[in-house]
Amino acid sequence: MPERMSKEWVLLYDGPCGLCQASVLWLMRRDKKQVLRFVSLQSEWARDWAFHNGKPLPEDSVALVYGTGLWTGPHVLHQSLRLLPSPWPALAFILRIVPGQKKIYRWLAQHRYRLFGQKELLTTCPAPHSWHEPRPHSY
Fold this sequence. Notes:
This protein has 139 residues and is an alpha+beta fold. Helices cover 42% and strands 13% of the residues. It has helices spanning 18-30, 44-53, 74-83, 88-96, 101-116, and strands at 9-13, 36-40, 63-66, 69-72.
């Protein structure tokens, strides 16, 4: 199947997760060029992307997609920071060399509801000009 979907960075987050929602809002405030788009893993957009690309999305983690590419786990943090303006790409490099980062990420992912709670699905943002969902797929 030829790839006909638009090329844009889409961060897929666990919609009801308090940590995920806070992270999305943090990224939005720093994404001055609005490079990232945000949508919950529970959305129709996410299910459609996974179906058409034949790649399962994580249920207990975040994901970042670009075209048919998929990043999960701590790689999402690194790649997202690399897309932000300076000084955030430098932090991405530093975090990448931190020992045990995958174990730390996995532990946080497994305990995120207990530590940060569950909230209603994030569908709006305090700064509406920065809230943008991915464009529909064009298969």
